[in-house]
Design goal:
By secondary structure, the protein is mainly alpha-helical. The protein has three helices and two strands, in the order H-H-E-E-H. Strands 1-2 form a two-stranded antiparallel ribbon. The chain is elongated and about 50 Å long. The model has no long low-confidence stretch (mean pLDDT about 80).
Amino acid sequence: MNYKLPNSLAYLAYNDLKKIDIYNLKRRYIANIYNKKINNKNIEILIREKDLEEQNYFRYPIIIKNNLISNFVKYFRDN
């Protein structure tokens, strides 16, 4: 990558890159909670840690089966 940033943005990016391991540990911790709590047959977790060891945990993709999206959204809105 050969991107140029203004000095102030480069400084912020550099400081965040130094903390990337801490961020990834927290994301992995949260993903493990999701893995333990999601045990519904209508929800499929797309990527588990054993499938892809070097995932960045920036997103936690799932597939909701049987057209239950409205119930899913209502549940999370209420809880």
